[in-house]
Design goal:
The chain is of the alpha/beta class. The protein has 16 helices and 15 strands. The strands form 4 sheets. A 6-stranded parallel sheet has the order 4-3-2-8-1-7, with helices on both faces. It has a 5-stranded antiparallel sheet with strand order 12-13-11-14-15. Among the domains are: about 220 residues, no CATH class; about 130 residues, Nucleotide cyclase, GGDEF domain (Alpha-Beta Plaits), CATH 3.30.70.
Length: about 500
């Protein structure tokens, strides 16, 4: 439980302090936004008039390359106002006069008089639109997610369309309309050259009433946004839907959010800290109580998936929560607890080996730990080599020596014999007083078990001779041993009672 709380607190603190984790949140936000945009159609009351490559090619003979003369923009304003556009917003700057064409400046200034036009930035004083709005945007890492509303082009335009709109601060943009290609526009649009052509035909009197009505219907009562989208001229504003999105489309999305009161509310980051810690604590408690690694892994995966899904559902409902941070907190909690439990189990296994290794042969202990399912009564028939070694005349030695001296000699002797037995791969069966019994080829297979048993017996005799020589020099009893070896078929396994049994062999 404490591990979960600590891991979650660490990740939550990083979320509050580190832009890198916040960047990961935006990455997940972009995935959510792309999925949601497919089910959120763009508001048909918003129409774009893009200055695209086709418009530039078609207008080249009339006006040359952009920037276009002001009389061309005056013509566009007059035509859109005549068509019944409720608001005309320019994502184009008019900050200076055009000394080469003062007539064009005056024509544009005249067109603005009384027209529902919103200009971007700070236009020259001679241009007096219905309103002005900033197009200064903040960038969250490489992709735009938020939009500063104060005195912005989108807010001023939206309020001109609906004066009841009351918004401020920074808007977390909700994106609308799916795109088949990154360069596609999500909103309905009519190219600039078509607007200019309609205006020129109207002046010439060649625009028939049906065509004029169809043209006007596209703009009547709507918000019209004019901006560059042509390659090389576009003000690229990468967003979750496209890395080459024009700025005018960003303004359109924000206006869409405002006029529909469809905004995303970011969850208070300070509130998220205790909630993530609480989630991590509960998750850690559950994982720590689950003994099956498979079950805990599946549960962890499902929980993290549920958190990711909850983040998507929250965004669909209009709330942005740090789902990525919560998922990282859960993943870190799971990893740390898993590692901690693994280390703890390793320590317990080492302690078990150290403790029970003093009571049973290491081979038997390893066999039990590697195959716990075999810890039951029963055995298997196999060829074994059995060695039996005892001290000759041990009873007489015991009667002639002090008990403490006998125990000391016996312990030293048995220690040396057992070390030799294990060195040659034997399994210690039991001590029978002064006797040592061991066998080969169980529980671990040993194809050369007979040879190993004989080598063990030879070294036991040699080591006993060295002990005897030293003990005789110390005035102790002379020690001699006898060893018997037999190879044959026997049963090796767990023999005893249902409650207490030991690994040994039985046979002839």
């Amino acid at each position: 439980m404490k591990i979960g709380a600590l891991c979650a607190a660490l990740v939550a603190a990083l979320y509050l302090a580190s832009p890198s984790l916040l960047g990961a949140e935006w990455w997940l936000f972009d995935i959510y936004s792309r999925q949601l945009a497919e089910s959120r159609p763009a508001d048909p009351r918003i129409v774009l008039v893009p200055v695209d490559d086709a418009s530039i090619a078609n207008l080249d003979e009339l006006y040359g390359r952009p920037p276009y003369p002001r009389e061309a923009w005056a013509l566009v304003v007059d035509e859109l106002e005549r068509a019944g556009a409720k608001v005309i917003a320019f994502d184009v700057l008019f900050t200076e006069e055009n000394p080469a064409s003062p007539e064009g400046d005056r024509a544009f200034a005249t067109a603005l008089e009384g027209a529902p036009v919103i200009l971007a930035g700070k236009p020259h004083p001679m241009f007096r639109p219905a309103g002005t709005g900033s197009i200064h945007l903040a960038r969250d890492l490489a992709t735009v997610h938020t939009y500063p509303l104060k005195n912005s082009l989108a807010l001023v335009t939206a309020r001109h369309f609906d004066p009841a709109i009351n918004a401020g601060g920074e808007l977390l943009v909700r994106w609308n309309g799916a795109k088949e290609k990154p360069q596609d526009l999500s909103y309905a649009n009519v190219r600039l050259d078509k607007v200019v052509l309609a205006a020129l035909q109207r002046e010439e009197g060649s625009l028939d009433p049906a065509t004029a009505e169809a043209f006007a219907k596209q703009f009547r009562g709507k918000i019209v946004l004019i901006g560059y989208v042509a390659a090389g001229l576009v003000d690229l504003r990468a967003n979750p839907l496209s890395t080459i999105a024009p700025g005018v489309e960003l303004h359109a999305n924000v206006i869409d959010n405002l006029i529909n009161r469809d905004v995303t509310r970011p969850a208070p980051r300070a509130l998220m800290f205790p909630l993530i810690v609480l989630l991590g604590t509960a998750f850690g408690f559950a994982v720590d109580r689950t003994r099956s690694q498979l079950v805990s892994g599946i549960a962890a995966s499902l929980t993290i998936a549920a958190v990711i899904a909850a983040g998507y559902a929250a965004l669909a409902a209009g709330y942005h929560v740090p789902a990525f941070t919560a998922a990282v907190a859960l993943a870190l909690t799971y990893v740390v607890i898993t590692v901690f439990n693994f280390v703890r189990e390793q320590q317990q296994t080492a302690l078990l080996k150290m403790t029970f290794g003093r009571y049973v042969s290491p081979q038997i202990l390893d066999h039990i730990l590697d195959h716990p399912e075999k810890v039951r009564l029963g055995g298997e028939r196999r060829d074994l080599t059995i060695l039996f070694s005892d001290i000759r005349g041990f009873t007489s030695i015991s009667e002639a020596s002090e008990p403490e001296e006998v125990v000391e000699m016996l312990n030293e002797y048995l220690t040396r014999m057992v070390d030799i037995l294990l060195k040659h791969g034997g399994t210690l069966d039991k001590f029978i007083g002064d006797a040592v019994m061991g066998f080969w080829n169980a529980p671990a297979a040993d194809p050369d078990h007979a040879r190993h048993a004989v080598a063990c017996a030879v070294e036991m005799i040699e080591e006993t001779a060295r002990l005897r020589e030293r003990w005789e020099a110390e005035g102790k009893a002379s020690l001699r041993i006898g060893i018997g070896i037999n190879t044959g078929e026997a049963v090796a396994g767990n023999i005893g009672s249902e409650r207490v049994f030991g690994y040994t062999r039985a046979g002839r």
